[in-house]
Amino acid sequence: MNIEELRDYCLSKPQVTESFPFDESTLVFKVGGKMFALTGLDKFPPAINLKCDPDYALELRESYEVIQPGFHMNKKHWNTILYQENLSPELFKELIDHSYDLVVKSLTKKIRLELGL
User: Rounded to an integer, what distance in angstroms lies between the CA atom of residue 27 and that of residue 116?
Assistant: First the structure.
């Protein structure tokens, strides 16, 4: 998956916004005002930080060398994934979906209803 595919996939999720809140090279995707994915556009190798259930995060890190504790994030709840390495596009999309779903579930019922989620 390349950066364009990554961006398109994230933006295809309901109520997702993109912005550059930290600097001009860190692209952040949010739902309900909360981050679920961020990627550095000038980083090599390309990587993305995704929110993850803590137990699942440990399992993924043990199973895939390209999945590491979240760089500059809470390492219990975030993974960094090198996305141009040997990781299937299906698993990559599942991890994006998982991150998005965790953030949506963390939103208040009122915000979820306002967003139609």
Answer: 24
DSSP-derived letter for residue 23 is -
φ, ψ (nearest 5 deg) of residue 44: -135, 130
Tell me the C-alpha distance between 82 and 104, whole Å: 24
Q: How far apart are the first and last CA of the chain?
A: 27
pLDDT, tens digit (0-9, with 9 covering 90-100), for 97-113: 999 999 999 999 999 89
CB contact at 8 A, 46 and 3: yes
E strands within 1-117? 16-19, 26-31, 34-40, 47-51, 67-69, 78-82
Among 102, 104, 106, 103, CA closest to 117: 104
At a CB cut-off of 8 Å and minimum separation 6, what does 45 contact?
82, 84, 85
Q: What is the pTM of this model?
A: 0.91
Alpha carbons 80 and 26: distance in angstroms, whole number: 14
**Helix locations, 48-88, DSSP H:** 54-63
